């Protein structure tokens, strides 16, 4: 679903681990952009894509190495603004007649640094990047360094390890920075991006209202009058996809909600009620709790649990989908990060890192064509679109919930008793978080029931019940995370409520492990 009606910015990816952050910063400025690995960006690609501006990302390679990644030479001849970041700066300098030297200890910079404008360019820099204080914090991560800038470029700012921290050729509107303006450790990076895209002539026409209208039109063009099946999990992505599809094609859409018995308290009823009763969608509520829990009985290995759940989901989904006569399309809530990760940086366009089909191999197995109306959106954009579609904030702002559900929050063997205890404890914990006004400050929060019983005292009697672990993390994208710093008062109050209100738990702990080295979930 290419958004050809918008001015487009091309991000050429040279392998940086934070390239996605560039796109997110630009989307926040209502600029439509796409990330493409450098191998895929050919002369023909550039002609077809017709970017209004280009950004070269950072990368792990060295431009002094023979055969290192490069953009096509034609990129420099398009007459559009170009911004080079870190490795991207070094590529520009090397390609355009400058010199880059391999890293030396006195020129390498990793971590926080400060750039200062050159005296002749301080007025320009105060408007473009600096806030008027005379220096700006940035985040550096480079070993190689530019030793001579390319002809036509001038130095606009320096840092202790980068004498050419910011360079520019204003006549060609080529800009190059040694640091990473996309990371939050460069606090004023958004200003730099904003000035770059405004200089390029972007008007900020990439809005969710516009996307909604275009997506509806494209869905109608793609599916015509044919039935569409949507795998509805109750998560934000599939829910927004279902709402968008329903607005586009109405009763041609049937959602299949597979209830595997591993959902949170009252979750199945809430999902079905919202989509079937309040939004008038056709929803098949596949109540298959006995099937899933029966096959999981006695299983304790986490990877085996995941494989069982995945296999059963496909079997159950296909069973119900076969009941929908004439269905030709399967809708999924694939997001743009999934699309990016499905293209290998190092292996070329024919190699994928991982598949992101939400229902495994079903499209091929069932002979269905995919409809992915969210495949150009990031998670935060999906939430905005959900609000545009009328989904309640309480629903689209929910914390992420894993596909295997409570199975991976129940280390060891899964039993109905442990699941019931876990649901109740989790409901109390989330209620506490909401009552204290902390829900939106936390990326994800949940309770894990531990495979251990402990001795306790309640009243005058001895107990021998389960222990649980509370987990709450802050994160930007789930790739890294840190534990949320609850007060001791909050933790004490929450532990007291869980122990008093949930029969079967007599001890609470709080997980303060970051990611890495831990993961957010317990399994």
From TrEMBL:
Q: Where is the GMPS ATP-PPase domain?
A: 206-398
Q: Which Pfam families match?
A: GATase, GMP_synt_C, tRNA_Me_trans
Record's keyword annotation contains Nucleotide-binding: yes
| Reaction(s) the record says it catalyses | XMP + L-glutamine + ATP + H2O = GMP + L-glutamate + AMP + diphosphate + 2 H(+)
Superkingdom of the organism of origin = Bacteria
Q: What is the lineage of its organism?
A: Bacteria, Pseudomonadati, Pseudomonadota, Alphaproteobacteria, Rhodobacterales
Q: Which CDD domains match?
A: GATase1_GMP_Synthase, GMP_synthase_C
Origin species, per record, is Pseudooceanicola sediminis
Keyword Ribosomal protein set for record? no
Protein name per Swiss-Prot or TrEMBL: GMP synthase [glutamine-hydrolyzing]
């Amino acid at each position: 679903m290419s958004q050809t009606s918008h001015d487009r910015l091309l991000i050429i990816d040279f392998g940086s681990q934070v390239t996605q952050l560039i796109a997110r910063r630009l989307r926040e400025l209502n600029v439509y952009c796409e990330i493409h690995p450098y191998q895929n960006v050919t002369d023909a690609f550039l002609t077809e894509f017709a970017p209004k501006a280009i950004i070269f990302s950072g990368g792990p390679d060295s431009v002094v190495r023979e055969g290192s990644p490069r953009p096509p030479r034609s990129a420099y001849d398009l007459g559009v603004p170009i911004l080079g970041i870190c490795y991207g700066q070094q590529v520009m300098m090397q390609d355009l007649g400058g010199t880059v030297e391999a890293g030396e200890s006195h020129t390498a910079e990793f971590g926080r640094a400060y750039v200062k404008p050159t005296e002749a360019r301080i007025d320009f820099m105060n408007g473009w990047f600096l806030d008027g204080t005379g220096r700006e914090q940035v985040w550096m991560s480079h070993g190689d360094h530019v030793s001579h800038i390319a002809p036509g470029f001038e130095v606009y700012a320096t840092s202790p390890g980068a004498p050419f921290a910011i360079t520019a050729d204003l006549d060609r509107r080529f800009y190059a920075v040694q640091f990473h303006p996309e990371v939050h450790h460069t606090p004023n990076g958004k200003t730099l991006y904003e000035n770059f895209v405004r200089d390029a002539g972007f008007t900020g026409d990439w809005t969710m209202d516009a996307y909604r209208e275009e997506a509806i039109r494209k869905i109608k063009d793609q599916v015509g009058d044919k039935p569409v099946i949507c795998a509805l999990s109750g998560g934000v992505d599939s829910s927004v996809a279902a709402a968008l599809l329903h607005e586009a094609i109405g009763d041609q859409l049937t959602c299949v909600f597979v209830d595997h018995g591993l959902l949170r308290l009252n979750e199945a009823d809430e999902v079905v009620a919202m989509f079937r009763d309040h939004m008038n969608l056709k929803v098949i509520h596949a109540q298959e709790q006995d099937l899933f829990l029966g096959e999981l009985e006695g299983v304790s290995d986490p990877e085996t649990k995941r494989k069982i759940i995945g296999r059963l989901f496909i079997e159950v989904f296909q069973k119900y989908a076969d009941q929908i006569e004439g269905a030709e399309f399967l809708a999924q809530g694939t997001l743009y990060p999934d699309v990016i990760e499905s293209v290998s940086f190092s292996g070329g366009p024919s190699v994928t890192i991982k598949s992101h089909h939400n229902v495994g191999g079903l499209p091929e197995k069932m002979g269905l064509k995919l409809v992915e109306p969210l495949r150009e959106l990031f998670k935060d954009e999906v939430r905005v679109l959900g609000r545009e579609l009328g989904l309640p904030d309480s629903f689209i702002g929910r914390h992420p919930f894993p596909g295997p559900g409570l199975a991976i929050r129940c280390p060891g063997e899964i039993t109905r008793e442990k699941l019931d205890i876990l649901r109740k404890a989790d409901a109390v914990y989330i209620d506490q978080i909401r009552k204290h006004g902390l829900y939106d400050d936390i990326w994800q929060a949940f309770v894990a029931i531990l495979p251990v019983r402990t001795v306790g005292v309640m009243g005058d009697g001895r107990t021998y019940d389960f222990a649980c672990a509370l987990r709450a993390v802050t994160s930007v994208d789930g790739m890294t995370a840190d534990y949320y710093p609850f007060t001791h008062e909050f933790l004490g109050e929450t532990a007291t409520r869980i122990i008093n209100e949930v029969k079967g738990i007599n001890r609470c702990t709080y997980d303060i492990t970051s990611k890495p080295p831990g993961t957010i979930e317990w399994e």
